[in-house]
Amino acid sequence: MWVRCALWGARTPAPLRLGLLASWQRHCRAASSYSASADPSRVRALVYGNHGDPVKVVELKNLELAALGGSDVHVRMLAAPINPSDINMIQGNYGILPKLPAVGGNEGVGQVVAVGSSVTGLKPGDWVIPANAGLGTWQTEAVFSKEALIEIPSDIPLQSAATLSVNPCTAYRMLVDFEQLQPGDSVIQNASNSGVGQAVIQIAAALGLRTVNVVRDRPDIQKLTSRLKDLGAEHVITEEELRKPETKNLFKDMPQPRLALNCVGGKSSTELLRHLAPGGTMVTYGGMAKQPVTASVSPSMFLLCRQSLLIFKDLKLRGFWLSQWKKYHGSDEFKRLILTLCDLIRQGQLTAPACTEVPLQDYQRALGASMEPFVSSKQILTM
């Protein structure tokens, strides 16, 4: 009775008191300790027992919530995106493959419900994201070890939090780790409308870098161009335009790029190399075209171009995989990276990619949409 009076007072209207009471009760339930007798039917997860077409092998199942150990954290998932790495993992052609059957999802954000007796630094209500790939975020709730989670501020938008730990991290590391770029320098990238591409545009702008952004031609190219320029892109051109001789005119008013970011491969990567400044670096972090990185499509021209590009221009070819970076740099460095990105989000310099929120039960629609060509909106499963 004291709690009600202290919160609302005797003169608070009855309907408002009832609404506030319901809200308070929901908060208390969310913050209460985990009970081993929780109804397992309320834990729903997207599970695959075999590798293959995600639309065919992924199923929505009820799972039993594991008992909360002393070093565990009970998390209620809030939102989790569908990334290309998730699709590749389900198909069985990714660098890390979990033991089957597995819950899908490498990324997402959840809220702590309860913590084990030996857990410090986390409390009910905190927001957390996966520390590494393969956690299995496509489920309504789960019990994870504390080491598998990283706390993040809860004052950033939900979509930004859900898409924080993969694409923006990849974009930031590629922009700062391979070339010592200074404000005014330029970067060229393909797949610029991807999640990484959109993050590159924004982080580059925050660092004072200028970007040339290559995309595939499509019916709504003008709409896409406007959206990328709103994010901070200086130039947006199509793959076909990149191959034209007049593209070199772009670099009359801006420095020739010293850094190229390649997520496509094939002819697209050849063109990125052609426009790199002498001594520049091309970093490959994906292969959407499923074609090798080459310097020409002709075997005879390949040798000549490879000599002129790699020898006479002293170009460097590098690869990047965030999971490997985390392995070498450790969790503390990754946490610092996350906090740096959260600062950019708070300052309005980094937003989530274009997203479409889809309820968990409509997962097949979301999986199908995520594999369509010319995808410009990331599918986010909401729990």
Structure in words:
- The chain is an alpha/beta fold.
- It has 13 helices and 17 strands.
- The chain folds into 2 domains: 154 residues, Alpha-Beta Complex (Quinone Oxidoreductase, Chain A, domain 1), CATH 3.90.180; 156 residues, Rossmann fold (3-Layer(aba) Sandwich).
- Strands 3, 5, 6, 7, 8, 16 and 17 form a 7-stranded mixed β-sheet that branches. The chain has a 6-stranded parallel β-sheet with strand order 11-10-9-12-13-15, sandwiched between helices.
- Its main location: mitochondrion.
- One of its GO terms (molecular function) is enoyl-[acyl-carrier-protein] reductase (NADPH) activity.
- This is Enoyl-[acyl-carrier-protein] reductase, mitochondrial.
- It comes from Heterocephalus glaber.
SSE layout and pairings?
Elements: H1 2-8, H2 14-31, E1 44-48, H3 54-57, E2 58-62, E3 72-81, H4 84-91, E4 102-103, E5 109-115, E6 127-130, E7 141-145, E8 149-152, H5 158-162, H6 167-177, E9 186-189, H7 195-206, E10 210-215, H8 221-231, E11 235-238, H9 239-242, E12 259-262, H10 266-275, E13 281-284, E14 291-293, H11 299-312, E15 316-319, H12 322-346, E16 355-359, H13 363-370, E17 378-382
Parallel strand pairs: 9-10, 9-12, 10-11, 12-13, 13-15, 16-17
Antiparallel strand pairs: 1-2, 1-4, 3-5, 3-7, 3-17, 5-6, 6-8
Helix pairs in contact: 6-7, 6-12
Largest sheet, in brief, is: 7 strands, mixed
Name of the top-level CATH class of the largest domain: Alpha Beta
Overall mean confidence score, pLDDT: 87
Instruction: Give the termini separation.
Output: 34 Å
Structural class: alpha/beta
* Helix percent band: 25-40%
- Strand element count: 17
